[in-house]
Structure formats: C-alpha cells, structure tokens
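Objective 1.3, modelling of assemblies. Example input:
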Amino acid sequence: MMSDSRVSSVIQEWASSYPGQVLNPSTSNQADSTNQLSQMDLIQYSQSQGLVRGGGDDRVAEQIMGLSYLPYSTSCISNTSSSGSTNHHQGHSSTAQDFSSFLLPTLRAPMNKRSISKDSAEYRQRRERNNVAVRKSRDKARRRILLTQQRALQLQEENQKLQMRIGQLTQELDTLKHILSQRHLHGAEDGAAGEGSI
Amino acid sequence: MMSDSRVSSVIQEWASSYPGQVLNPSTSNQADSTNQLSQMDLIQYSQSQGLVRGGGDDRVAEQIMGLSYLPYSTSCISNTSSSGSTNHHQGHSSTAQDFSSFLLPTLRAPMNKRSISKDSAEYRQRRERNNVAVRKSRDKARRRILLTQQRALQLQEENQKLQMRIGQLTQELDTLKHILSQRHLHGAEDGAAGEGSI
DNA sequence: GTGCATTGCGCAATGT
DNA sequence: GACATTGCGCAATGCA
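Predicted structure (tokens):
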C-alpha cells in the first residue's frame, strides 16, 4: 500500500504531542499507520474552554477578581528580566526605575495577601518564571495544533487512496464474479479473461 | 459506535470553518464523503462567521481592570486612572496622582503619536472594541481547533473502516481467484463455493 | 506548600 | 478607519 514515509513520520510526531495513552505501538509496523486518536484530543479543549461555557457572567466574575491590583506604579520596576527574550516593546526598560517610593500608601496595591508586593524580587522572579512557562506552554499548544492539522490532511489523503483501492478491488471482484457466473451458466468454456487485466 | 451520519455532519461543519476553497466537488466520485482538506489548513484562516456569542453586553465589569501592567517603563504615566471602562467609576484610582513629574524624560511614554492618551474616551472605546474582537477571534480559533480535532478522529475511524473493507474485498477476491484457477485446471466441476460465503 | 502547566483576559502591534 | 490576528505578560487555577 502507500507506505509513505512522510506520513508516518508526521503522525509519529503528532502522537508525541499527546503524552496520554495516545500511541499504540503495535500499529507502527503496519503499512498504513493508524494510530489511536482517542478522545484525548477532544477533552482538553471542549471542556473548560470557552465553547461550552455558559453565559457571560463567569467572565465578569473572573475579571472583577483581580482588578484592584494597582495597575500602574507597580511592575514598572525592577524587571530587568534576564529572560526578556522575545519581548519587543520594552527595549528601553533598562532605564526603568523604581517609582514605588513616590507612591502614597493608599495608592499601593491592596497587597494584603501575604504582602505580595509587586516590588519584591521574589514577585518578579515568580512572574518571570510564569512567563517562561506560559511561553513554553503556548509553543507546545501551537505545535500540537499544527500537528493535528497535518495529521488531518494526511489522513484525508490516505482516505482517498484507500477509497480508490476499494474501487479497484470492487471492480476486479465484479469482473471475476461475472466470469464465474458466465462459466456457471455455460459450463466450463475455458476463458481466463479478466484474471490480470483489471 | 459512531454513525456515519454524524461523521459527515461534523466534517461539513469543519469545512465551513475554512471559507477558502476547501471543498472540491470533483473528487467526490467515490462513495464516502471525502472532502478536500488542501493546504488551506496549514496556511491561515480568515473570513468571519458570526458566532452565536455576539452580544458584548454581558460583559461589563471586565474593563474595571483596565490597564493591566504597564510595560515596565513606558506608559507609566499619563493616565491617572485605571480607566474605568465605558460606563463606570474610576473608584480607587481617584486618588491616583501623576507621577510623571518624577519620571525622567527618557522614561516617559513614547506617546508621541497623536497623543494617544489612555484617558481619552476614544482610547477606551477602541480598546473595548478590540477586546471584543479578540474574544471573538479566540472563540473562533478554539472552535476551529476543536473541529479539526474531531475531523481527525473521524477520518481515522473512517480509515480503519476502509482498511477493513479492503481486507474483506481482498480476501473475497483471493477466494474467487482460487476458485477460478481451480476450475481452470480441472475444467468446470461445478463448485459455487466462495460466491457469497465470504 | 512549592513549582510548573494551563487558560482566560486585556494590551499593543500588525494584518486585512 | 474598523475589525481580525497574534505575541505577550498577568493572575487565577490546575496539578503533581
């Protein structure tokens, strides 16, 4: 059959994006690689992600939660994040200074909870870690999506080929059946026709 | 298990997510529905398709949060408020002051472009519009991804079925061929064996 | 509790 | 100019 090496390789890669119980090792040697897709694919997104989400109130609620957190002053400072990496709009951040000393206490963030002052190096550190994690996670997601798309494409191609194959087989079968019926009717007349012609 | 009707319906829906030239009627000569995936998948997606969740009225409090984080140095100034969205207070921010006087000129926001002060109602309006657009776009993306995943799953199922079908046909064919060869050798012996038994 | 992973969200830059 | 996409950081939350 169409043992397209390209196909299997991509599917292989795709499968690796789903660390769950996705791969079925027994299928790798088969001609047409048919991995297990499983429900894993649909779980993650369908639930907890927008689509099914009820009304809009949840959004509001979520929003209200974090809003009192002092939008300005903080976080203007001490970033110097070493892992700025792809950050683009903060090239001049190197000159950033700590304005917090100018802020009135009343203006400061409500940081009532365990004094999570946004000035603390610890805070910045955590933020930076999270930012890294976020980037990583999103890269992963992007890759996963891409692989899924490629996989869909290839499955479709494969499908077409399979269907074509079925068409061939069916036709061949019909021919043989016809021949057989002919012989059945007329008895053995010796006609090796359609054997290899189809 | 899954019924074929469901399959085609989902694929149908999936196809509608790709307003490009996704469907190619010329290839659908074979029995099963086999849509064209084409490269469109991997490229981009555009076009809009009014989702159900159009109403932006449900979300109101979201803008309380207003400017989140102030990219470090720039734009730390010129706003006095956390931007009370379109229709409400600027509550806690009322005590906010202008720290810009403390900022070194080099630290000031680059707001040189037509003075895009974040206080302006026009700015808030634009932001809000964009936020709506972003939500819409992301919903769409989520839907698209979900659809692609479902499609991949279904294609895979279909694939398995096709392969099984091919197996059947092949075996049947072998049987008939065998029968034919037998007859060929021994002449008509009358043996309607594998006709319908496979 | 600690730490990374996910996810929704708003902002801004950029594309159409 | 309006809307659509996209990368990014923040915060909440999930999870090991």
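Helices of chain A lie at 5-16, 40-46, 57-66, 121-186.
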